[in-house]
């Protein structure tokens, strides 16, 4: 079963984005969390500088491997999901809600054109 | 193997129980030091001698090793360690020599080091050899430091990048980072070769080294190797080969003949010294003649039929206290000497045949990472089985139940649900057939009765452990 909610946007690196105003909530997709297996640790950079689209913003560690996290949009990290410190399993259990990773103040919404919609992301996985 | 779980010593403890009764003390008891210097309570198990002996004896019977069972752990080259290696390594003259003895006092040991340097130089085609590194990753790191030192002295422009294929060993980016280099990933094509166009676009004046695992972690020989080394050299960089997979190349090809400048080799894999318990390892570094003046010290040379300890002219310095893992060096020396040139070549040929035999027999049952002939190891994928809810992890657990060590899983990262199998040259056809049959049985259970696999292991002292919980909330000390 592959969950890809229609209302979200996606990067080829398997991050999802939800836009509200100029704030983007960002996490990893079900496909990503399923491939990683049980997540044990999420480490987000603490920098509050302006970051570019597709810059690395942290690492996610599962029982299998450590993978890099890439920003689907450029901007400033405003908030990190502190709940993940004690409950990294949220990423496996509920990646699109409780498993969100950061909230980002987006620089330029035009960069959305470099992302995929649900249909395109699904195709990209095949 | 007993199915019963062995209770921890602390859980077996009974207050007042003793392992030995000591006679009455003949001297006057003195008071304990002031309380503030003492820990409040030191919890130690109280247990009888018999229970203690049973505890350790039963634990030891749970050991799994190459001397007990087949160990198809890809990339780890778990081959048989001939017992003559152990016998010679235990000779008093070697076992009791001390690295602080004077040069003339340890000529025999120095001779072994010198001759193994020469042999590894011949085997890899890279004549500058240092046996100092204590493990593969340290050999890798020493190799990068040599490249950095050479470039610092001889190359004007700033070299800051290590190019690393996405199929490389995980230690490569770690070593690069320790050597102060930034890792840039080079892609692999669908056929399992390095993407030449991607390499061309990333190789430039900033390139310090390309770190190449050969054969790659997909178990494949890099078909464009000559073009690859040329591209990197033209860009002004050096080529480092991760020689962890050298078991596939002995007597067939040599790193030095392929344009490679630096490599390492794991004596504890290719040259059959014991490993798997965390060491000691040995990861010699080999370089071209031009780079040999940068080798770590100490280095052994032969002059007027005497062996001398020297430091190469522009040495990167010491990377550990003494001469490396001498006991391991000695075992590898015995191994190479007992096989000879022809024997070494046969090792690689048989390792390759065994891996291809497994690949061929299993290809209808599991997906292959590549349809090409493999080298000394084959990478399968459990993608097909995953459709029924059986993952690579479950297959690995089921293999434990069947008396096999699990293959390497989820590596290389570029293969989904990877199972990396390396039979080595030392297994008989019967053992390999037995393994193949078990793998086929597991694959058919995956379609017909997946629960049988996802609930494994059942035949071991403990069942499926909660690995995620152990990683998230490790409990590292015994608690009441």
Give the gist of this structure.
Chain A is α+β, with helices and mostly antiparallel strands and 126 residues long. Chain A is 18% helix and 34% strand.
Describe the structure.
The complex is a heterodimer of chains A (126) and B (480). Chain A has 126 residues and is an alpha+beta fold. Chain A has one domain: OB fold (Dihydrolipoamide Acetyltransferase, E2P). In chain A, 18% of the residues lie in helices and 34% in strands. Chain A is built from 4 helices and 8 strands. Chain A has helices spanning 30-36, 83-86, 90-93, 118-125; strands spanning 9-10, 15-20, 23-28, 39-44, 56-62, 66-70, 75-80, 102-106. In chain A, strands 1-2-3-8-7 form a 5-stranded antiparallel beta sheet. In chain A, a hairpin with a 2-residue loop joins strand 2 (15-20) and strand 3 (23-28). The relative contact order of chain A is 0.26. The model of chain A has no long low-confidence stretch (mean pLDDT 93). Chain B is an alpha/beta fold and 480 residues long. Chain B has 3 domains: 9-21 and 34-61, no CATH class; 83-339, Aspartate Aminotransferase, domain 2 (3-Layer(aba) Sandwich), CATH 3.40.640; 347-470, Aspartate Aminotransferase, domain 1 (Alpha-Beta Complex), CATH 3.90.1150.10. In chain B, 36% of the residues lie in helices and 11% in strands. Chain B is built from 16 helices and 13 strands. Chain B has helices at residues 9-12, 49-61, 83-89, 92-95, 107-124, 136-154, 171-178, 196-202, 225-234, 267-270, 326-362, 383-386, 392-401, 429-448, 451-454, 467-472; strands spanning 128-130, 161-165, 182-186, 207-213, 238-242, 262-264, 285-287, 299-303, 306-310, 367-368, 378-381, 408-409, 418-421. In chain B, the strands form 3 sheets. A 7-stranded mixed beta sheet of chain B has the order 1-7-6-5-4-2-3, sandwiched between helices. A 4-stranded antiparallel beta sheet of chain B has the order 10-11-13-12, with helices on one face. The two termini of chain B are 29 Å apart. Classes of the chains: A alpha+beta (126), B alpha/beta (480).
